[in-house]
């Protein structure tokens, strides 16, 4: 399993979602939460969590 951290740009490309939709879905608890990276405003997502989310959407 990959330990790669994806930034917002990559998450948008993989999911096809906009920035605002991603954060709206996080607030609803329907999207993997971001993790804090170094720096005050730097966040990312575990690649495995994003891939798992995409796969669960394809099965639904």
What does this structure look like?
The chain is α+β, with helices and mostly antiparallel strands. The protein has three helices and three strands. The chain has helices at 8-15, 19-28, 47-59; strands spanning 5-6, 35-36, 43-46. The protein has a three-stranded antiparallel β-sheet with strand order 1-3-2. Strand 2 (35-36) and strand 3 form a beta hairpin. It is globular, with a radius of gyration of 11 Å. The protein starts with a strand and ends with a helix.
> Regions with pLDDT < 50 over 5+ consecutive residues?
none
What's the rounded overall pLDDT mean?
A: 93
Largest sheet: 3 strands, antiparallel
Strand residues, percent: 5-15%
Please state the CA-atom Rg, rounded to the nearest Å.
11 Å
Q: Treating each run of at least 4 consecutive H or I residues as one helix, how many helices?
A: 3
| Order of adjacent strands in the largest pleated sheet | 1-3-2
Approximate shape: globular
Taken in chain order, the helices and strands follow as: EHHEEH
Count of DSSP strands = 3
Helix content: 40-55%
End-to-end separation in angstroms reads 23 Å
């Amino acid at each position: 399993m990959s330990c790669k951290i994806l930034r917002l740009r990559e998450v948008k490309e993989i999911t096809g979602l906009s920035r605002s939709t991603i954060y709206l879905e996080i607030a609803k608890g329907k999207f993997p939460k971001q993790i804090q990276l170094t720096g005050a405003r730097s966040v990312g997502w575990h690649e495995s969590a994003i891939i798992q989310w995409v796969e669960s959407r394809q099965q639904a």
